[in-house]
Amino acid sequence: MSTRRTESEIQGFQASPDLSRNLQQVLVDLIELALQGKQAHWNVVGTNFRDLHLQLDELVDFAREGADTVAERMRALDAVPDGRSDTVADSTSLPEFPAYERSTDEVVDLVATRVYATIDTMRRVHDDVDAEDPSTADILHQLIDGLEKLAWLVKSENRKI
Fold first, then answer.
1. Contact in structure between 53 and 112 (CB atoms under 8 Å)
2. Can you name the residues that pair with 44 across neighbouring β-strands?
3. Which portions of this protein are annotated as coiled-coil regions (predicted)?
4. 24 bridge partner residues
5. Cα 44 vs. chain centroid, distance in angstroms?
């Protein structure tokens, strides 16, 4: 009794519409986080400017790399990522970032809130993603862990004891 399969019996895993939609939401929030992080980076002023300026670059790099990982995972599952600026602006769950210069204290609070909003998106879709594709859920785990660490580092700038 042979266990060999024929070529026609072998197919790659493909994302369902629900998985695609969930990953798309994560993607646009990561892209928006990177954009807002750069906006904050360019316009932050005040006490401890340099440290926060550099921390924001770390956050932006992490969000950009995370967005690329999610988009490439989507392609690996035959889903089509959409990172166009109109799509991101229309579908992100992150609050709008204010214009103009902002104090370091204000930027810390604004950025921490946006990092947690991105994490909330990942946590909201996690169980559905995990049910369909545990490998993709592992990517979400890594992103959540990394973003929670970055949020802690940023928000600690304003913490008083």
1. no
2. 102
3. none
4. none
5. 22
Please compute Rg for the chain using Cα positions.
19
Neighbours of 142 (CB within 10 A): 11
Would you call 103 helix, strand, or coil by DSSP?
Answer: strand
Give yes or no for residue 5 having a pLDDT over 90: no
Q: Rounded distance, CA 57 to CA 64, Å?
A: 10
Residue in the structure block whose two tokens are 């909330």: 120
Could you read off the pLDDT of 126-135 as tens digits, one per residue?
999 999 999 9
Place of tokens 């909003």: 117
| Band (6; pLDDT cuts 50, 70, 90) | confident
Q: Please give the class, per CATH, of domain 15-158.
A: mainly alpha
pTM (whole model) above 0.70: yes
Domain regions of the chain by residue span: 15-158
DSSP state at residue 8: G
Provide the 3-class DSSP secondary structure of residue 45.
Answer: strand
d(CA 39, CA 100): 9
Q: Rounded to whole angstroms, how far apart are CA atoms 131 and 46? A: 46
